[in-house]
Amino acid sequence: MNKEIYTKPFFKGNPITVLVLGICSSLAVTVQLKGALVMALSVTIVTAFSSLFISLLRNTIPNRVRIIVQLVVVAMFVILIDQVLKAFAYDTSKMLSVYIGLIITNCIIMGRIEAFALGSKPWPSFVDGACNGLGYGMILIVMAIVRELLGSGTLLGFQIIPQALYDAGYMNNGLMILPPMALILLGCVVWVHRSVDKDLQEK
Amino acid sequence: MEYISLFVKSIFVDNMVFAYFLGMCSFLAVSKNVKTATGLGLAVVFVLAVTLPLNYILFEKVLKPGALVWLGESFAEVDLSFLSYIVYIATIAAIVQIVEMVVEKFVPSLYGSLGIFLPLIAVNCAILGGSLFMQERAYANVGEAFTFALGSGLGWFLAIVAMAAIREKLAYSNVPKGLRGLGITFIITGLMGVAFMSFMGIQL
Q1: Residue B142 burial by Cβ neighbours in a 10 Å radius (0-12, 13-18, 19+)
Q2: Strand, coil or helix: what is B122?
Q3: Rounded CA gap, B82 and A131, in Å?
Q4: pLDDT for residue B27 is more than 90
Q5: Are the Cβ atoms of A102 and B129 closer than 8 angstroms?
Q6: pTM of the prediction?
Q7: What is this model's ipTM?
Q8: What residues of A are in contact with residue B176 (Cβ under 8 Å)?
Q9: Which phi-psi region, left, alpha or beta, contains residue A171 (left: φ > 0; alpha: ψ -120 to 50)?
């Protein structure tokens, strides 16, 4: 199997910074690291397994109704995740509110199914789905670390910035917690990525 | 009066793009010029206004815990709310398909300008997000759900058209190489979000 399947989703073909897929959720859930981790894990599971299932079914799905079939398969996995979260991590599930449901329309999943799983064998599809989910998760976690650390001075709820710094006049950056900052930060992530990898720059 | 307040609130205060980041993918991909942005914006307003009240009725009459009581007393205990995602997305996909066929048959000129965007809308998170917010906020009746749908659709329309207009002008400016295209678009959207935040906390 081609090694590129493993490495591409992380840098050259990162779903968020290069393919511009799945932006909505990546911005909304990065206020705290915990939410970002749960979201990254959920998306990875859904992408991997729906790619696997669609790939198994790929020769039996009629082309005309494939979008509906795909949506139903994806929705099934999202419901599973949602029910598990509600049962075992209710607080996180409340915090993520509608964004768990919105995994269904997360373009990464549909994008990978359409571009890869419909024309590949089950195992490569599974790996491709999982790696894309992880590539998405990577950006999520980077953003969440910056936002939670600078915005609330904590990571996963633990105080990281020492009290002495606050006494010396340091203040949390309230802007980091607000929605618009997520966009500006993502813009900066894209900037850094494209400065490192010059092939990706647009004219 | 409540309707007007809800309407204005869902356009400006709870703007789909700037407050909740919904429909970002197509927002970024289709905001290169004003004309196509207007087309997609109108299609979103339309589909939201049709699917949201429909999903509201489905939720109230079929999915909500105890909603099936109209079928008989024995159904009073049934709770189908875990099926809501699948029902909503199926409704949306079906409506989009129907709308596409109807528009193609009866208003070919509109189809010419909207046509390519309609299939895109089935996977636009603003549409599914609208239905999920409707469920979470528990609107009192179909009228409120419809007002919310219309307001948030218009909010999305406003955002994408404004963005497209800015990007058309941006073509003449000298942006740092790594920021060109995607990067600067994110930052502009963020700055517009800051501007929209000034509406926060307004009581009507």
Answers
A1: middle
A2: coil
A3: 29
A4: no
A5: yes
A6: 0.83
A7: 0.81
A8: 191
A9: beta
